[in-house]
C-alpha cells in the first residue's frame, strides 16, 4: 500500500506489512516491513505520510522574486522562503489539485496573482526528506505576477511576518550566505538554474 499515485511497489519492491502507529489530520506514522531489491528478506522501517505540497517561485514582470517571511515552529526561526502549501483534493484531477493549490497559495501568502500575460510553469517535483517520509513538493515558476486586488489572506495557522520582492542577485546571495535554508526554496532555485531559467 502506498499513499501517492506515483509511489508504488515496483520490480524487487514489496510491502509485506504496514501498521499505523499514529495519525492526526496532518501526518500519519506507519511501521512497515518492505522487501527491497537489495534486501529480499525484507526490512523494517518507519514511514511518515504527509500530503504533497505545491511550491511557487513568483517572478514579477521585471524579474524579481517575491518571498514571504514565515515563522517555522520546528526550527524556532522566522525565515524567508517561496510560498507553499499542502495540496487538497480536487473535484477534477490530481494535476488540477496541484495547480489550484499553487495559485491559491500564491494569492493567500503573497497577495500576488498571475498577470494577464502570466504563466504557471511546472518545474517537476522532489522529496524533501525521503529517508523517513513520502512527502513531496511540486515546484512551479509563476512568471509575471502582479499585486492582487484583495491582497494577502494567510491561513489562520500561518504566521507570515513579511513579504517583499528580491532581485535575482539578492536571492542568490541569500542562498549563498545560508539566510535561505528551507528545502523548497533551495530546490526551486536549483531546478530553475538547471533548466536555464535563471
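^ Assign residues to that structure.
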Amino acid at each position: 500500500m502506498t499513499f501517492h499515485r506515483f509511489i508504488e511497489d515496483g520490480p524487487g519492491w514489496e510491502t509485506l506489512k504496514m501498521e499505523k502507529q499514529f495519525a492526526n489530520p496532518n501526518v500519519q506514522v506507519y511501521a512497515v516491513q518492505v522487501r527491497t531489491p537489495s534486501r529480499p528478506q525484507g526490512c523494517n522501517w518507519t514511514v511518515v505520510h504527509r500530503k504533497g505540497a505545491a511550491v511557487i517561485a513568483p517572478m514579477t514582470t521585471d524579474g524579481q522574486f517575491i518571498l514571504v517571511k514565515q515563522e517555522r515552529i520546528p526550527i524556532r526561526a522566522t525565515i524567508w522562503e517561496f510560498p507553499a502549501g499542502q495540496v487538497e483534493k480536487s473535484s477534477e484531477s490530481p494535476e488540477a489539485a496541484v495547480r489550484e493549490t499553487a495559485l491559491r497559495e500564491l494569492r493567500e501568502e503573497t497577495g500576488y496573482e498571475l498577470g494577464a500575460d502570466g504563466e504557471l510553469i511546472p518545474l517537476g517535483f522532489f522529496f524533501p526528506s525521503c529517508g523517513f517520509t513520502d512527502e513531496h513538493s511540486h515546484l512551479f515558476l509563476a512568471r509575471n505576477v502582479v499585486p492582487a486586488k484583495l491582497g494577502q489572506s494567510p491561513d489562520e495557522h500561518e504566521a507570515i511576518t513579511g513579504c517583499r520582492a528580491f532581485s535575482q542577485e539578492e536571492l542568490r546571495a541569500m542562498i549563498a550566505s545560508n539566510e535561505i535554508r528551507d528545502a523548497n526554496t533551495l530546490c526551486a532555485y536549483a531546478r530553475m538554474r538547471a533548466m536555464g531559467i535563471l
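Helices lie at 94-110, 168-176, 183-194.
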